[in-house]
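Hello again,

I reread your note about wanting to compare the complex against the isolated chains. To keep things tidy I'm splitting this into two emails, and this first one only covers the full assembly. Below are the input lines as submitted, including protein chains and any nucleic acid or small-molecule components. They are followed by the predicted structure of everything together. The single-chain runs will come separately.
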Amino acid sequence: MLTALKGNILEALSPDILGVHPNSYLVLENGAVVGIYPDLPENMAEASVEDYGDALILQSFADMHLHGPQYEFMGTGMDKPLLQWLESYAFPTEERYADPAYARDHYRILAEDLIRNGTTRVAMFSSLHTDSTLILMEELEKAGVTGYVGKVNMDRNAPPYLCETTEESEQETLRWLEASKAFTLVKPILTPRFAPSCTERLLAFLGRLKAERDLPVQSHLSENLGEIALVGELFPDCRQYWEVYDKYGLFDGRTLMAHCVHSDERERAAMKLRGVHPVHCASSNNSLMSGISPVAQMLREGQSVCLGSDVSGGTTLSMLRTMANSICAAKDRGSMMQDTAQVISIEQAYYMATSAGQSFMGYKTGFTAGERLHAVVLDDTGLPKLPNITLRERLIRAVYRLDDRHIRAVYSEGVRRL
Amino acid sequence: MLTALKGNILEALSPDILGVHPNSYLVLENGAVVGIYPDLPENMAEASVEDYGDALILQSFADMHLHGPQYEFMGTGMDKPLLQWLESYAFPTEERYADPAYARDHYRILAEDLIRNGTTRVAMFSSLHTDSTLILMEELEKAGVTGYVGKVNMDRNAPPYLCETTEESEQETLRWLEASKAFTLVKPILTPRFAPSCTERLLAFLGRLKAERDLPVQSHLSENLGEIALVGELFPDCRQYWEVYDKYGLFDGRTLMAHCVHSDERERAAMKLRGVHPVHCASSNNSLMSGISPVAQMLREGQSVCLGSDVSGGTTLSMLRTMANSICAAKDRGSMMQDTAQVISIEQAYYMATSAGQSFMGYKTGFTAGERLHAVVLDDTGLPKLPNITLRERLIRAVYRLDDRHIRAVYSEGVRRL
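Full-complex prediction:
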């Protein structure tokens, strides 16, 4: 069955190239992209057209780092330093997700809010609770959110009510992986919370599991200076933070590493060599004063940087706002260093918010033929009409001015979900 | 006539003290504040009560620096440096305000959007066009926005289509001041655009006018390094930027100076001595990469810092977002300097967004008895209920998460406007 979306189509073809198709047709066959055409080709004339007029049709968003159980307290505790924030907000809240009914109620809201904000792909941390993690996967899949969810592993340096024994962590991980087979759109991703929260035995177990089952992995890397010092103490045989993950086979092309704020040249070179995907989390880096990531530099080095809202160290679920926050953080870094080379472009922000995540998940970038449609229709037609404004300029404006009110439609896996 | 608003009342009593009145009555007599009471006193029992339930009742916002004619292109050109941005966006748009009908249409929208966002006090730049400036004042007054509007003076260093002769500028200023007498809520404020756009003769004229008629004044100060260098060239007899304004009597307790990003110790000491009010514009300082203002330092020095959206170097009209942007900018400065003393508190952000502007306008801070009510009702009851969350924490969360959708009522000069 042929269908088509008509509007102003914008693709993130590369970190530097925005594909611009004014007033064009995005043609689909059974939900998969056929191509983009200025006019509907004759042999596709029977396609049923959804005409979005002068609205913008973008790739939908990929939020490559967020914590599901933290969503409910987003925006609170933002005046606390990291440790106090974890103890007062993050950990006590995560504990409540031991209760599957509580988890169900909250994860349903999260899944719906993701779609409402145009996010159709995620890489998300759950809590350590297996059953609630499965509920999160189910609720995401029901709402049309695709991607990866991880049951968190923590067998040390966690509050007693959120700490597993190594055996429990291993067994529950296996049980969770088995039960995850029920899902088709949401897949499991191994999730050692971060190096300090896992014993070497647990990391070794996860590394073996990754190798045996070809699983992806997500964790945190070089988020703040205190954490880096702690890793140094806990793993004295590793010269740098990344080497802990690398030692256990958890550092390759199927790995997402959140933050990387303080990754120096050597650590960044290791990421590049291994094909690790850094996830830039501008909002939480700001809130928790972790530092400002050298994201422009990482992009210049050819790192495949993704964006993460990092709810709820981050203060917004909106990837539009997350793009704006990323641009703002880069400018602040540039201002303080008096170095305009720190700035990132709208092309780079849009690519990191969409195609970079697609790419991690094994999909082609942009709206590539054969891929099932993931798209969002952004209606900026209520904003002032400006003479000679380009579509690129409308994308910049959208990032600063639009929110979920302006998201008119969301497509995930070829299906309209909003 | 006695009336009362019931809800959780939050006052900005000083930059460090938040007045917190859970579930209380804000009693008014003919729109003027009588007091805040945990229970309705017996002798006020006849007051008709507007019950806002569990919502937050805040002072409404004072946006102490924005450019009326720039609102329409807010969010565009944010990837351009200052000069190119002025030439491509700001100046060509301002030119259109030569047409009073065009101005009327656009200023009506701006005035309504201000109220919708809870801003009831402003200090605003118009363009150089006298008639359109009067239209702006009229539209603000109609919508219930109070404060100051200035016809801009520019007799050099401006594009030809936006440059007055000195005589024109003087005569039109006098004509505008005369016609401004028609307004009661919106008052004129002298507005040399910035030192480089005015000849010394024009500055001297404005200084005399200020003294003769006891008028307030607003301008820009030390926004970016290029501008500071230009001032040095144009006014070789002035050692520092502020001395230009000071030389002509435009630098005292009735003066607003926008930005002050690069004001050093000496310039800040002069502001403090004269009682000049700096206006912090975090969003545009970021967008145009002017730098990050040392606002925490200025507050420590006892400067009466106000906040400005600086539409449209700034990307938002919302003062909630402007507060968030101010907190974020201070954290970015702190991160880059590894100095937590750069951070500002929610108390400081809220004070700068409300009471500081009230104070400049000659009103008492907070909800003081005798002052006509300026208030906004923020309904955060749709956000997750968190156990033991304090009203202060709800204010922090509101700044990050709420927008005009959550503004349930707005009062200006004792009258409900939304």
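For quick reference: Chain A touches chain B at residues 72-79, 285-287, 289-292, 315-316, 324, 327-329, 331-337, 340, 343, 345-346, 383-384, 386, 389, 393, 396-401, 403, 405 (CB under 8 Å).

B.
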